[in-house]
């Protein structure tokens, strides 16, 4: 039982950070998280576990900070003296990394170095274990199917290149200074807390909004892309497990199954009682409703076109297919994912449908409801 351990999570306000903070609190950890200053509130994903500083036995603490600021990271590490650091903070959107390559490198690559160097500078390298949020995007233009720990990397975006630096600097600090530092090479993982501009959440949210008449059409980029999608809850469990071993090591975390973006659309629509047919090719591809079952789509009728292609969402270089082989994680750590892509999709659609139905009721009663569709 890891009762009195202290953990520091960068990116605690993100999808994984919020699930990991929950998990560590359940395990009795004192959990510290770094949040960024923003002009509007950005703690929605951790508000339910927030603890007021006036509360007795406070176990969850938030610190203002940024991965671009060494002095701030050093000060927080000195104050917190963590047993475990989980570096989940990142500019994590692949498409955005083409728009902001320098910032992405600063946060995702240099940010990792700043943290490792601060740990070393403070003399914590023998006390503090370090987890790095590495990614299947490292494989990019894949050299082998499925991808495992020994598969060569070929990153295809400024995000992936920055994460490749982070991957190797973690290995280097492990080899140079004997630090317990490891990479989780995680394949895509989603949940109802997934950021709204990643494709799965964009799809489940749009299907929900369209079904309630709050949005007209879902515009997507490359629907042929194949991904190995798991559930974030399963994956943060593995992040913790990786830091509980005798020696540090790197692991691929994946389900070993893949489906296309198009199949994820079909799956999501089905969850909302909508049957779709895809016709046309390339930029002319559309999805038309062929049947409606149940009562979840009052705003729609058979024949409506609800999905179209918008080349704005194509990327300068695409990662067409990712499929992970999690054998090492299974054999060495006993980790197996418990939630299937179908179950995850159902949970996401249900969550977004509930929100959309609430908005639709408010709209019906004259409230001015605007749904953000820019993504
Ligand atoms: P999110 O985008 O949901 O969360 C990213 C977090 O990083 C947010 O808390 C964000 O803060 C924070 N952040 C962004 N920029 C900075 C900065 N400059 N300084 C400090 N914090 C910052 O990502 P996920 O939770 O999905 O992913 C967690 C990590 O795992 C990321 O590093 C991601 O690259 C990596 N990863 C994710 C995978 C996935 O499929 N989800 C797969 C493989 C790797 P704010 O809330 O203010 O924006
Ligand atoms: P990815 O996730 O790039 O794999 O990175 P994302 O959900 O953004 O894209 C998956 C695939 O879907 C295609 N796609 C679209 N993507 C978005 N976002 N919006 C669209 O409209 C759209 N249409 C098609 C993409 O081209 C791509 O092929 C995620 C992030 O969480 C990273 O931080 C993480 O490292 C990797 O997963 C593993």
Which keywords apply here?
Rossmann fold, binds guanosine-5'-diphosphate-rhamnose, binds NADPH dihydro-nicotinamide-adenine-dinucleotide phosphate, 4-stranded mixed sheet, 36% helix, 375 residues, 15 strands
What can you see in these coordinates?
The longest helix is centred in the C-terminal third of the chain and has 24 residues, at 341-364. The chain contains ten helices and 15 strands. It is 36% helix and 17% strand. The strands form four sheets. Strands 3-2-1-4-5-6-11 form a seven-stranded parallel sheet, with helices on both faces. The protein has a four-stranded mixed sheet with strand order 8-15-14-13. A two-stranded parallel sheet has the order 7-10. The N and C termini lie far apart (43 Å). Helix 5 links the parallel strand 5 (129-135) and strand 6. The protein folds into two domains: 6-186, Rossmann fold; 199-226 and 260-316 and 341-365, UDP-galactose 4-epimerase, domain 1, CATH 3.90.25.10. Guanosine-5'-diphosphate-rhamnose binds next to helix 3 and helix 6. It catalyses: GDP-alpha-D-mannose = GDP-4-dehydro-alpha-D-rhamnose + H2O.
The CATH superfamily of the largest domain is NAD(P)-binding Rossmann-like Domain
Largest sheet: 7 strands, parallel
> What's the number of domains?
2
For the largest beta sheet, what order do the strands appear in spatially? 3-2-1-4-5-6-11
Task: Give the beta-strand count.
Answer: 15
Rg to the nearest angstrom?
Answer: 21 Å
Written as H for each helix and E for each strand, in order along the chain, the element string is EHEEHEHHEHEEHEEEHEEHEEEHH
Please, how many helices? 10
Instruction: Quickly name the level 1 CATH class of the largest domain.
Output: Alpha Beta
Summed over residues and divided by their number, the pLDDT gives a mean of 96
Q: Name the beta content range.
A: 15-25%
- Work out the helicity level: 25-40%
Q: What CATH architecture of the largest domain would you give? A: 3-Layer(aba) Sandwich
Q: What spatial form do the alpha-carbon principal axes imply?
A: globular
Keywords: Lyase, NADP
EC number: 4.2.1.47
Protein name: GDP-mannose 4,6-dehydratase
Cofactor: NADP(+)
């Amino acid at each position: 039982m890891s009762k009195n351990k202290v953990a520091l999570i960068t990116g605690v306000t993100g999808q994984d950070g919020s699930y990991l903070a929950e998990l560590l609190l359940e395990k009795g950890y004192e959990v510290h998280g770094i949040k960024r200053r923003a002009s509007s509130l950005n703690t929605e994903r951790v508000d339910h576990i927030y603890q007021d500083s006036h509360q007795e036995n406070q176990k969850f603490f938030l610190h203002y900070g940024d991965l671009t600021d060494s002095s701030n990271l050093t000060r927080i590490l000195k104050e917190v003296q963590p047993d475990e650091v989980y570096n989940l903070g990142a500019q994590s959107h692949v498409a955005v990394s083409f728009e902001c390559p320098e910032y992405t490198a600063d946060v995702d690559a240099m940010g990792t170095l700043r943290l490792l160097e601060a740990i070393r500078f403070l003399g914590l390298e023998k006390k503090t274990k370090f987890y790095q949020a590495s990614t299947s995007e490292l494989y990019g233009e894949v050299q082998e199917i499925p991808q495992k720990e020994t598969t060569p990397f070929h990153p295809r975006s400024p995000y992936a290149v920055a994460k490749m630096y982070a991957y190797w600097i973690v290995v280097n600090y492990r080899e140079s200074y004997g630090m317990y530092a490891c990479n989780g090479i995680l394949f895509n993982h989603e949940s109802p807390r997934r950021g709204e501009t990643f494709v799965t959440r964009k799809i489940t949210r749009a299907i929900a909004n369209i079904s309630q008449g709050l949005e007209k059409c879902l515009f997507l980029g490359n629907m042929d892309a194949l991904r190995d999608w798991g559930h974030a809850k399963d994956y943060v469990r593995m992040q913790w497990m990786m830091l509980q071993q005798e020696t540090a090591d790197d692991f691929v975390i994946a389900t070993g199954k893949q489906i296309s973006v198009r199949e994820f659309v079909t799956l999501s629509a089905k969850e909302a009682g909508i049957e779709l047919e895809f016709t046309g090719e390339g930029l002319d591809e559309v999805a038309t409703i062929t049947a409606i079952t149940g009562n979840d789509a009052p705003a729609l009728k058979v024949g409506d076109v609800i999905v179209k292609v918008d080349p704005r969402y194509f990327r300068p270089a695409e990662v067409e297919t990712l499929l992970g082989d999690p054998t090492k994680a299974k054999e060495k750590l006993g980790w197996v994912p418990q939630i299937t892509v179908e179950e995850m999709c159902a949970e996401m659609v249900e969550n977004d449908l509930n929100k959309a139905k609430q908005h639709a009721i408010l709209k019906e009663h004259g409230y001015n409801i605007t749904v953000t569709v820019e993504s």
